[in-house]
Amino acid sequence: MSSVHWVRPDIAGDIVAFAFAPGAAPPREIRIRKELCERMLAQMPPDERATVVGCGRLGSPVGVPLVVDPDLPVFPGFEVVRTRPWDVAA
Asked: Which of 14, 48, 60, 66 minimizes the number of CB atoms within 10 Å of its CB?
């Protein structure tokens, strides 16, 4: 019998991976529900949390603006607003 070990989800890592998915347009903004943002911040190390809260950005090195949006659906609880193709070309 194999034992199953559950790994705590990495909310920030998963969102950043989704935002920078290969082949997708670059992220312009990440919108996130308040309760998901609170859970994400709670699992971050203090220095990383302070950077996200202080700068309002998620990811590195520059980061993407993070906006709390209570009107998003509960699942998945976030959305990535991407640049439009003509914005990238300009």
From this structure: 60
Show the tokens assigned to 20: 């920078």
Query: How far from 70 is each of 26, 30, 85, CA to CA, in Å?
Result: 23, 13, 28
Which of the pair, 51 or 87, is modelled with greater confidence? 51
Q: How many CB atoms lie within 10 A of CB 21?
A: 12
Kindly give the pairing relationship between strand 57-58 and strand 27-32.
unpaired
Tell me which residue of 69, 56, 70 sits closest to 81, measured CA to CA. Answer: 69
User: What was the pLDDT predicted at 87?
Assistant: 61
Residue with tokens 């998901």: 36
**pLDDT, tens only, 34-58:** 999 999 999 999 999 999 999 999 9
